[in-house]
């Protein structure tokens, strides 16, 4: 187990990091998290990830007793302790903390903060060159009045069960609908489809996590003159897609060339997806290079 882990001010090798079993993040799943990756050894879109972490924490009445500068310093220290990394995978977990086996917030006086750092492992080249298989699964995304998907919660059972269904079908990601039968998002990523040159993605009102990468795609679309917009989509819209792709922090954009055994478009990554991917990668390197120079 490679890497290093920060737990409430202490940094240790990954295989030695522990939290108490009475931590409410463990016994109840009460916590939020963010996943980042570095380019030029700089966490990409860090401020946006931290803004979402705070918003998620606020929605579950979880205090965040540190500022962004402190968290970035702890990340840098943990990256340094992880050894000679080319680029880093970073996962921040912030939980309710240790307390009695009760839901009473007064039982957990201090939250727990964990930072996991390990080498970033890029997806195989065939993911981007050849594309991936997607499965539309029966598992519904959480109802917004249950555990709202807009909260990036440590409780990922809904996502895990959907992903396990996709694995059994030979797919690499699971696409889910909401209780109304509308498309929402994938188990670990946001979903986009291209139709007649326009890039469409389900709206936030469908009940989904508003991905940091998802939002960045809207900015890249404006830069390229590509129409990227939210639109209510259903499974009946999928056969009309010329292209599909999914987005997340670690995978950037992954073209989808097969859905439930049906070929998408011509069975190859499409031109709009490729154009957006190339600009995304270029901007990620440029923005982090500028930050690296300013902090040197």
Describe the structure in your own words.
There is one protein chain. The protein has 2 domains: 4-119, D-amino Acid Aminotransferase, Chain A, domain 1; 125-284, D-amino Acid Aminotransferase, subunit A, domain 2 (D-amino Acid Aminotransferase, Chain A, domain 2, Alpha-Beta Barrel), CATH 3.20.10.10. The protein is built from 7 helices and 15 strands. The chain has helices spanning 24-27, 46-59, 68-81, 125-129, 157-168, 212-224, 271-295; strands at 4-7, 10-13, 31-39, 42-43, 88-95, 112-119, 132-136, 173-177, 183-186, 190-195, 198-201, 228-230, 243-248, 252-259, 262-263. The strands form 2 sheets. Strands 7, 8, 9, 10, 11, 12, 13, 14 and 15 form a 9-stranded mixed β-sheet that branches. Helix 6 (212-224) crosses helix 7 (271-295). The longest helix is centred in the last third of the chain and has 25 residues, at 271-295. The model has no long low-confidence stretch (mean pLDDT 97).
Q: Give the count of structural domains.
A: 2
Low-confidence blocks of residues: none
Helix proportion of residues, in percent? 25-40%
Mean of residue pLDDT values: 97
Total number of helices: 7
- CATH topology of the largest domain, which one? D-amino Acid Aminotransferase, Chain A, domain 2
> How would a textbook summarize the main sheet?
9 strands, mixed
Rg value: 19 Å
Would you identify the CATH architecture of the largest domain? Alpha-Beta Barrel
The total strand number stands at 15
Q: Looking at the chains present, what oligomeric state does this protein adopt?
A: single chain
């Amino acid at each position: 187990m490679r890497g290093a882990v920060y737990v409430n001010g202490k940094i240790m090798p990954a295989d030695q990091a522990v939290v108490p079993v009475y931590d409410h993040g463990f016994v109840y799943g009460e916590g939020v998290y963010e996943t980042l990756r570095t380019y030029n050894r700089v966490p990409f879109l860090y401020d946006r990830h931290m803004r979402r972490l705070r918003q998620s924490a606020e929605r579950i009445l979880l205090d965040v007793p540190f500022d962004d500068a402190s968290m970035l310093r702890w990340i840098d220290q943990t990256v340094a302790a992880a050894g000679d990394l080319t680029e880093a995978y970073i996962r921040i977990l912030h939980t309710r903390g240790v307390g009695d086996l009760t839901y009473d917030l007064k039982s957990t006086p201090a939250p727990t903060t964990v930072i996991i750092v390990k080498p970033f492992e890029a997806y195989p080249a065939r993911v981007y060159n050849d594309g991936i298989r997607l499965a539309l699964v029966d598992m519904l995304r959480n109802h917004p009045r249950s555990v709202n998907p807009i909260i990036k919660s440590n409780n990922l059972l809904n996502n895990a069960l959907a992903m396990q269904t996709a694995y059994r079908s030979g797919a690499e990601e699971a696409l889910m609908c909401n209780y109304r039968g509308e498309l929402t998002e994938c188990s670990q990523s946001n979903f986009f489809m291209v139709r007649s040159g326009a890039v469409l993605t389900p709206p936030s009102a469908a009940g989904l996590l508003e991905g940091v990468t998802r939002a960045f795609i809207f900015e890249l679309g404006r830069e390229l003159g590509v129409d990227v917009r939210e639109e209510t989509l259903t499974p009946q819209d999928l056969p009309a897609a010329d292209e599909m792709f999914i987005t997340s922090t670690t995978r950037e954009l992954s073209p989808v060339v097969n859905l439930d055994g049906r070929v998408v478009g011509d069975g190859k990554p499409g031109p709009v997806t490729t154009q957006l991917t190339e600009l995304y990668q270029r901007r990620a390197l440029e923005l982090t290079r500028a930050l690296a120079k300013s902090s040197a």
